[in-house]
Design brief:
The protein is mostly helical. The protein contains three helices and no strands.
Amino acid sequence: MTWISAVPAWCWWLIALVIVAGGQEIRVGAGKSDASAARTELADYRLQVSERDRRAAAVARTEEQRRQAVADEEGESARQKLEMAQGRAVAAEYAAGGLRGEIARLRDGRAATCDTITAQQRQAEASAVVVLGGLLEESDRMAGDLAKALERSRIAGLTCESIYSVISREGR
């Protein structure tokens, strides 16, 4: 009789069960360590992503502040130009008022000096002077209004263009 047959069958089953359970325990332990390593890698990845997002937000904030500073600077320059244009418009309006006064004086003087001309001629010439003077006054007033509007839109357009060119040039 050999020593193998001396060991009862239930012991062989117990030995097989212990070997299988030990193998499973080793497998579960390896799985746990793999899961732990995966969790650590995931945490590291999340940290890297959040750090990258934080830096990108800081860069975007800095760029936005730079662009706003450029826009504010150009806006201030435009306001100064508009104030200068407003001053020139006031001076031009003052000069135009003087011209209108001179036209009115000439019209009144024309009527007074034309006593030697016949009544019909004097009336026709006076009405022509009045019409021409009125047209001149109205065209002068319209030219002043158009000049103001043109100057405002020109300054606004140049400011917008300047802001765009500075921002696009520095953004490269």
